[in-house]
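User: Let's play a game. I give you a shape written as tokens, and you guess the letters that built it. Ready? Here's round one.
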């Protein structure tokens, strides 16, 4: 997944257009009027930080996003670190956080009205009296139809409450010499425009893949256990969760990869690939959210089946349990390249020898 390749450019007026992924290190925004286009995670993170030095920061959004206000430093984590060892506290805090996110996601899907009410009440309590919450912070969709955004310590609400930031819900008509003309007829003056407008999805970061000289299109293949591609040997990647932290699946992917490589090394295999066979497999989207950047790029994502091990689930707890009982050989084809020395025969100065050694150590510890 990659962001749109935009960079900082100058407008005719001398103002600047900046994309967050190409932020100029020498950009001085002190006292400047800034308009941030977008209302996703990037926008709501940038605005409170920019508001500390800028003259005025405006978030321009086409439609609102669900925002979850939470403390940067949880009391549960603080207690766990005091009473448990570092390693144990890390595991406990990690599971607690995953469970909390799972509960929020569950109630968002089963009783969306309750979550809408709770988030609206939080916004009302944090924003100035009489603030138009229903215009600027009441999305048209249900919670978790799109990803929710976290605002640490309600910092975005605090910036609005202090008058350092504002929200405008409207559409861009065009950009002129002094700022942004809106379709409603209004105008936002801007010295700097920040385009926090979303992602452009690409399978495998746009990498070109070929096998025996034949190009492979990842979007034609099913995803195996959310980290390999059907009939493509020795290729591992990560498909993150849409409803929780990306790193949770990244960790599962890393462990599953190490487990498979250790299995291969211990048996002298040089390659392995998942094979689905000729049976019919119903398809579903790999990502099940309705965000615009996903809907416009469904054609760019590999396919998910509806049955394991080809089903890309958005359920960390189920995946974590499944991994504990994972069978390395499930739907997997192993092989050896005859003219290539097995890993065990490589010299001690070889990088592959060191990889093999670590894999064998992993296999010895885990009984692979």
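Assistant: Ready! My guess for every position:
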């Amino acid at each position: 997944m990659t962001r749109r390749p935009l960079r900082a450019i100058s407008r005719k007026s001398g103002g600047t257009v900046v994309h967050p992924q190409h932020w100029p290190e020498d950009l001085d925004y002190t006292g400047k009027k800034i308009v941030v286009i977008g209302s996703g995670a990037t926008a709501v993170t940038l605005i409170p930080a920019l508001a500390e030095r800028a003259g005025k920061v405006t978030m321009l959004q086409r439609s609102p996003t669900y925002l979850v206000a939470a403390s940067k430093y949880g009391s549960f984590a603080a207690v766990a670190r005091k009473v448990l060892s570092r390693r144990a506290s890390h595991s406990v805090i990690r599971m607690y956080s995953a469970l909390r996110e799972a509960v929020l996601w569950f109630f968002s899907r089963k009783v969306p009205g309750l979550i809408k009410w709770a988030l609206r009440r939080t916004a009302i309590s944090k924003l100035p009296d009489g603030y138009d919450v229903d215009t600027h912070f009441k999305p048209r969709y249900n919670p978790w139809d799109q990803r929710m955004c976290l605002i640490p310590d309600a910092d975005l609400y605090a910036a609005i409450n202090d008058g350092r930031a504002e929200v405008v819900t409207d559409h861009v008509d065009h950009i002129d010499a002094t700022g942004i003309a809106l379709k409603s007829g209004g105008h936002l003056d801007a010295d700097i425009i920040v385009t926090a407008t979303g992602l452009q999805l690409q399978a495998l970061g746009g990498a070109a893949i070929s096998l025996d000289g034949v190009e492979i299109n990842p979007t034609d293949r099913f995803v195996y256990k959310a980290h390999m591609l059907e009939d493509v040997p020795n290729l591992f990647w990560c498909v993150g969760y849409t409803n929780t932290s990306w790193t949770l699946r990244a960790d599962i992917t890393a462990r599953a990869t190490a487990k498979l490589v250790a299995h291969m090394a211990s048996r002298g295999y040089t390659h392995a690939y998942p094979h689905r066979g000729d049976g019919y497999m119903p398809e579903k989207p790999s990502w099940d959210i309705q965000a615009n950047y996903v809907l416009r790029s469904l054609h760019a994502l590999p396919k998910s089946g509806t049955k394991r091990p080809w089903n890309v689930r958005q359920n960390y707890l189920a995946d974590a349990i499944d991994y504990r009982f994972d069978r390395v050989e499930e739907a997997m084809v192993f092989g050896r390249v005859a003219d290539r020395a097995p890993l065990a025969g490589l010299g001690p100065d070889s990088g592959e020898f060191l990889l093999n050694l670590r894999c064998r150590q992993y296999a010895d510890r885990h009984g692979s």
